[in-house]
Amino acid sequence: MTATKTSRLLAWICVGALAPLAEAQTNKIYTYTTQGAVPVDLNKGRLPTNSYETYYLESALPKTSRPAATPKPKATPKPKATPKPKPTPKPSPTPKPTPIPKPPKATAPQPEVAKPATITVSKTNPPTAPAKSSPKPAAAPVDDLDEYGDTVKVADPIEPVNRGMFWVNHQLYTYVARPVSKVYRTILPKPVRTAVHNVYENVEYPVRAVNHLLQGQPHRADLETRKFLVNSVAGVGGIMKVSDRFPDLAELPSADTGQTFAKWGIGHGPYIVLPVIGPRSARDTVGFAGDIALNPLTWVPIGGVAQAIAVPLTTPNTIRNVDNRLEAYDAARENAVDPYTAVRGAYIQYRDRATSK
Fold first, then answer.
1. Is 80 domain-assigned?
2. Does the predicted TM-score (pTM) go above 0.70?
């Protein structure tokens, strides 16, 4: 009796201990996470130790939370690439015929009706600031007379004296030369002034012809002679400038003794401002004396006038040239920070250009 009960008790203990393991092997164990019911990996048929999770048999899970087997998606075949259609060329537009305008119908003139004057006020938006990425405006064109800083440097050892004479000449130009020129233009009409200028220029033929020869330009001296003969004969002593009708004679560059010295390689020398005459270099001052000596007006007295009085008549700053000289003077001084430096640079640049012809 005792042995039989003891054997039965041991059998029931073994069955009770092995029943959960057998059920665990037939039923999977799950635990709940944020992703739902997740199977638990048993380590040699044992549950994980030191775990705070709650475990459930698969049979104890509700049907809604049991994981359903999802079939694997079948791979869909890739669509074959279809060739792109070639673009068809667009037909060129045919030009539309231009309609012929109809002549306006003649209508009788209607009397003009005076309309009342009206005043319209328009609101304008304030100017907006330019964007940072906007391109910079193009630079304004530079006038030739503003380039005196780029011309050849000329020595000016007596600059204080020259500046004083420059101021004196400016007063003479303003208060004497301009009023005299205005009276000259008022008394003599433009055709008469042009005739006087042409006669003086024709008489100065020896100055140009001799300097062309000294510069080694016999062809120009020949053209200068033809110009003198044409203006003297056909132009009635040079009153009319007939030579302007011939391109070779009209475009003939002028020549003076200062240009001849430059052709010979003589430099400007010191810069000088002469009374009334204005800016000169030492080279052009000596050449100016040579031009006076070659001018026929200084060879003999004219109409009883002494030769000393005839000399000023041959200078390029006589009354017949005041207008042109004042225009060049004003152009050089205009918008200049230092008028003295501007006039000096403009004169040197002008002489360099005349020499290069």
1. no
2. no
